[in-house]
Amino acid sequence: MALPKYKTSRANTHSRRANWKAKVPQLATVRTPEGEAVQVPQNLAAAVRKGYMKP
């Protein structure tokens, strides 16, 4: 396992963490087996379309 050679300053640590941003998931409109149209995240669209999970 890699170990840091030097201590990272508090300012560098805080600025790195402050620049992280969460992304809004891309929504896809999908028709369920029951016939209703719902919006779900793109990565779950196929499962909802096939009826494996409820939106």
From TrEMBL:
UniProt KW Ribosomal protein keyword: yes
Keyword Ribonucleoprotein appears in the UniProt entry: yes
Entry's Gene Ontology cellular component terms: ribosome
Keywords, alphabetical: Ribonucleoprotein, Ribosomal protein
Region Disordered, residue ranges: 1-22
Coiled coil: none
Similarity comment text for this entry: Belongs to the bacterial ribosomal protein bL32 family.
Name of this chain's protein: Large ribosomal subunit protein bL32
